[in-house]
């Protein structure tokens, strides 16, 4: 696994994020409500596993690409929310 980069949810993803994965990340970001109390938004971490990009949000949401290159969002079953 190769560590890529981190950025805050709702911010523009880094250029290293492939367009297909970017679409999935943006779709997840749209579901995160604005915090009325000024808490920081969760952060994304981009990693590469066996040459495939994976973005994981601090909340346990994972966005990856399926075999056809389409973005798929899921919850990490080990995060306690899944």
Observed structural traits:
82 residues; five-stranded antiparallel β-sheet; 37% strand; 1 helix; globular; alpha+beta
Q: Could you characterize what this model shows?
A:
The chain has one helix and five strands, in the order βαββββ. With 82 residues, the chain is α+β, with helices and mostly antiparallel strands. It has a five-stranded antiparallel β-sheet, with helices on one face. The chain is globular. The chain starts with a strand and ends in a 7-residue tail after the last strand. The model has no long low-confidence stretch (mean pLDDT 88).
Outline of the structure:
With 82 residues, the chain is an alpha+beta fold. It contains one helix and five strands.
Task: List the topology elements.
Blueprint: E1 2-8, H1 19-31, E2 43-49, E3 52-57, E4 61-65, E5 71-75
Antiparallel strand pairs: 1-2, 2-3, 3-4, 4-5
**Quaternary:** single chain
- Count up the helices: 1
Strand element count: 5
Q: What is the element string, with H for helices and E for strands? A: EHEEEE
Rg calc: 12 Å
Major β-sheet profile:
5 strands, antiparallel
Shape: globular
Separation of termini? Answer: 23 Å
On the 0-100 scale, what is the average pLDDT?
88
**Percent range for helical residues?**
10-25%
Helical/strand content category: alpha+beta
Q: How large a portion of the residues is in β-strands, by DSSP E? A: 35-45%
Contiguous runs where pLDDT drops below 50 for at least 5 residues? none
Q: Largest sheet, order of strands side by side?
A: 1-2-3-4-5
């Amino acid at each position: 696994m190769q560590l890529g980069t981190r950025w805050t949810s709702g911010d523009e993803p880094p250029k290293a994020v492939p367009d297909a994965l970017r679409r999935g990340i943006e779709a997840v970001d749209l579901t995160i409500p604005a915090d009325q109390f000024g808490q920081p938004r969760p952060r994304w971490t981009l990693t590469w596993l066996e040459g495939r990009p994976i973005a994981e949000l601090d909340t346990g949401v994972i966005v990856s690409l399926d075999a056809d290159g389409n973005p798929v969002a899921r919850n990490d079953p080990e995060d306690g929310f899944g």
